[in-house]
């Protein structure tokens, strides 16, 4: 019913549409500033910084989900696979595609000799939390996410 495979450059327009779908679901559609062209460069250029899988409906080739990942290094744990985005289009959720996709990423983490896998989930996303609990995932409560945007970094560096 579903086929999971490594993502290809030609998949990026459909993957980018899924990213927008996720942003709408997470109530942040205006936060997406990435582009297909940036993803082509960053995923298929001379120094790729991410990889991804797609899941298709068997027979029609429509991409109905994606898992975008990269590697990070923990000084405490070593090489980790970081699952940046994990998206199944709304109409296909609960039908098994997500399980196949998630397990492909788990297998990739082992194939790449990672010491584990990490990701984030919004505290209000109960369906996702329930899904991850089925796998025995642990949830951290004491860490806070921090970030600076490029323009903020420029202001800091230029005005020390």
Automatic annotation (TrEMBL):
Residues 2-160 form the N-acetyltransferase domain. InterPro entries: Acyl_CoA_acyltransferase, Diverse_Substrate_AcTransf, GNAT_dom. It comes from the Bacteria. PROSITE patterns: GNAT (PS51186). Pfam families: Acetyltransf_1. Keywords: Acyltransferase, Transferase. This is GNAT family N-acetyltransferase.
């Amino acid at each position: 019913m579903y086929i999971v495979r490594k993502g290809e450059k030609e998949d990026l327009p459909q993957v980018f549409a899924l990213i927008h779908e996720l942003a709408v679901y997470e109530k942040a559609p205006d936060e997406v500033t990435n582009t297909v062209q940036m993803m082509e460069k960053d995923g298929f250029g001379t120094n790729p910084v991410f990889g991804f899988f797609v899941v298709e409906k068997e027979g029609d080739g429509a991409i109905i989900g994606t898992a975008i990942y990269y590697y990070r290094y923990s000084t405490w744990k070593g090489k980790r696979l970081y699952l940046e985005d994990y998206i199944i289009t709304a109409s296909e959720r609960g039908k098994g595609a997500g399980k196949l996709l998630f397990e492909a990423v788990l297998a990739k983490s082992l194939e790449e000799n990672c010491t584990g896998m990490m990701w984030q989930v919004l505290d209000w996303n109960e369906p996702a939390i329930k899904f991850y609990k089925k796998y025995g995932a642990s949830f951290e409560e004491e860490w806070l996410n921090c970030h600076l945007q490029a323009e903020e970094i420029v202001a800091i560096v230029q005005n020390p």
